[in-house]
């Protein structure tokens, strides 16, 4: 049991000042004034000292981090997951870029082999980005592994078997039948690495696509006479746009335009981070390609962007800086919106009774102070010279 007190709680639908949150058996059981539910004697107590308590962040596109690449080393998923809470991430989709079938199968087995006594962010299933992509928009995907849509390859893909989200190009022959098949099995299908026209994008939406992978990147530019898939995503309220707000993948002015078009309910911030996240500049893998990483970005030797080095908490801060949106709305893009995309809106992404107790404590500059996963404090920032957190016992 964990009792958090003196918090400024963003649910994120509402703000509650000087509030308390009580957690038992991994779920939130009470949110409100301290007088309404005094702390049980046996509960561990965490004094938030007035800081911001928000739902834990969810990242739907993470290729790797801390030197590990999920496509080249699927067995590192849990190792990376243990370190992600430093960025406020409590749940994520390990993302595999275009590759042969074997790494995908190894990643699925890895997900089902949860280590004993694991502490860290929860991998909710794979995001398989490829191999059904348009070669003209391959980006940093190795073209040797691209292939036409193949129903046999995905015949057993579903959330229960480890695949939550699949990115493909809807204009490829056979893609729409594959979309319908995957969507029927509960897989979220996303359009990405595509040359789709607005008509082809609309056909993909009718077949069941509801998400766009890193909007504007690896797709035709938005043009006033040929709006393409980017125009379709902006115009249709049913699309949710994944976006990388690092100031490099998408200009801040266009981030603001997307914000105005989609709002908190239609925009999902992702990191699209690769193995260099949390590491110094150098060379890092993206599957079997080598990526040159500077202090600012990650690129192939020819200059092609190859994922990002953006932590998700920085993505939230950037969105507020670029758009001047409210904190509640910014938080929604990494909490309630991704939960809805995955069909988990009734169990994750909010601070409310009955929800999974995944939480992040932020200072008023939105730096991560502590992260809670399923009611357990899995990250506590060190050092904290002015004790921001008071606990009954030491970690």
Summed up:
This protein has 395 residues and is an alpha/beta fold. It has helices spanning 77-81, 101-111, 175-184, 198-207, 228-235, 252-266, 312-323, 327-332, 336-341, and strands spanning 2-10, 15-24, 27-33, 44-47, 52-55, 57-62, 64-65, 68-69, 89-96, 122-123, 126-129, 163-168, 188-191, 211-212, 240-243, 267-269, 282-286, 289-293, 298-299, 359-362, 368-373, 376-380, 390-391.
Q: What secondary-structure arrangement, pairings included, does this model have?
A:
Layout: E1 2-10, E2 15-24, E3 27-33, E4 44-47, E5 52-55, E6 57-62, E7 64-65, E8 68-69, H1 77-81, E9 89-96, H2 101-111, E10 122-123, E11 126-129, E12 163-168, H3 175-184, E13 188-191, H4 198-207, E14 211-212, H5 228-235, E15 240-243, H6 252-266, E16 267-269, E17 282-286, E18 289-293, E19 298-299, H7 312-323, H8 327-332, H9 336-341, E20 359-362, E21 368-373, E22 376-380, E23 390-391
Parallel strand pairs: 1-4, 1-5, 6-9, 9-10, 9-11, 11-12, 12-13, 13-14, 14-15, 15-16
Antiparallel strand pairs: 1-2, 2-3, 4-23, 5-20, 7-8, 17-18, 18-19, 20-21, 21-22
Helix pairs in contact: 4-5
Description of the structure:
The two termini are 15 Å apart. The chain has helices at residues 77-81, 101-111, 175-184, 198-207, 228-235, 252-266, 312-323, 327-332, 336-341, and strands at residues 2-10, 15-24, 27-33, 44-47, 52-55, 57-62, 64-65, 68-69, 89-96, 122-123, 126-129, 163-168, 188-191, 211-212, 240-243, 267-269, 282-286, 289-293, 298-299, 359-362, 368-373, 376-380, 390-391. A hairpin with a 2-residue loop joins strand 2 and strand 3 (27-33). The chain is α/β, with parallel strands linked by helices. Helix 4 packs across helix 5. It has two domains: 2-54 and 349-391, Roll (Urease, subunit C, domain 1), CATH 2.30.40; 57-341, TIM Barrel. Strands 1, 2, 3, 4, 5, 20, 21, 22 and 23 form a nine-stranded mixed beta sheet that branches. Strands 6, 9, 10, 11, 12, 13, 14, 15 and 16 form a nine-stranded parallel beta sheet that branches. The chain has nine helices and 23 strands.
């Amino acid at each position: 049991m964990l009792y958090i007190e003196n918090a400024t709680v963003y649910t994120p639908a509402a703000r509650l000042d000087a509030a308390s949150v009580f957690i038992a058996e991994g779920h939130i059981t009470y949110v409100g004034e301290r007088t309404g539910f005094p702390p049980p004697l046996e509960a561990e107590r965490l004094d938030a000292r007035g800081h911001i308590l928000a739902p834990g962040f969810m990242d739907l596109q993470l290729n790797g981090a801390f030197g590990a690449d999920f496509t080249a080393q699927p067995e590192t998923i849990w190792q990376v997951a243990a370190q992600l809470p430093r960025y406020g991430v409590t749940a994520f989709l390990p993302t595999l870029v275009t590759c042969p079938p074997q790494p995908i199968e190894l990643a699925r087995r890895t997900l089902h082999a949860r280590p004993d006594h694991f502490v860290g962010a929860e991998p909710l299933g794979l995001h398989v980005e490829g191999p059904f992509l348009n070669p003209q928009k391959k980006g940093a995907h190795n073209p040797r592994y691209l292939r036409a849509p193949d129903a046999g390859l995905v015949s057993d893909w579903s959330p229960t078997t480890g695949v939550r989200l699949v990115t493909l190009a809807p204009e490829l022959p056979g893609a729409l039948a594959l979309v319908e098949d995957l969507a029927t099995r509960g897989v979220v299908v996303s359009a990405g690495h595509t040359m789709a026209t607005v008509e082809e994008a609309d056909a993909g939406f009718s077949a069941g696509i509801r998400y766009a992978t890193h909007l504007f990147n690896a797709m035709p530019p938005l043009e006033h006479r040929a709006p393409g898939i980017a125009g379709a995503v902006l115009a249709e309220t049913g699309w949710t746009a994944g976006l990388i707000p690092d100031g490099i993948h998408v200009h801040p002015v266009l981030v603001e335009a997307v914000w105005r078009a989609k709002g908190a309910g239609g925009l999902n911030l992702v990191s699209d981070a690769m193995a260099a996240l949390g590491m110094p500049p150098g060379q890092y893998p993206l599957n079997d390609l080598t990526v040159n990483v500077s202090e600012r970005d990650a690129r192939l030797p020819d200059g092609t962007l190859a994922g990002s080095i953006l932590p998700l908490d920085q993505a939230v801060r950037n969105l507020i800086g670029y758009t001047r949106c409210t904190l509640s709305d910014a938080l929604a893009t990494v909490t309630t919106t991704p939960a809805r995309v995955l069909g988990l809106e009734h169990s994750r992404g909010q601070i409310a009774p009955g929800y999974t107790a995944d939480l992040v404590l932020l200072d008023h500059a939105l730096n991560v102070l502590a992260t809670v996963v399923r009611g357990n404090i899995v990250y506590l920032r060190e050092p904290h010279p002015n004790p921001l957190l008071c606990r009954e016992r030491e970690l």
